[in-house]
Predict the structure.
Amino acid sequence: MIARKYGRIIITASVNSKIGLMHGAAYAASKHGLLGLMRTLAIETAKQGITVNAICPGSVCTRMNNLRVEYDAKRLGKSVAEYEASLTAIGGRLDAHEIAPHVVYLASREAFVITGQAFNIDGGKLMV
């Protein structure tokens, strides 16, 4: 990328890279670390035509997240459906296809002015 003076690095972090996570210290710590890495790489490569950004998805319907939702619902004494509805302002989890267009844009030539940013794609969970 440096030799070509062009590149796009897109890191998949999480909303938990910005907030803590009950019973998820290792996960949250690793995701916080990704944002530090992203910001450092962005500073180091900005003048070489390389952008470095992160997406921070909220709860996405995946096999791993299904297990987390089931665990948290049980821990809180709620049904999975009730708990899932409370995860975001829009009332549910996201699907991967709802995140993909944001990644495609960040990977495009048109996104050359965006670097060092962490984008929440979280159905309104954080609203920051």
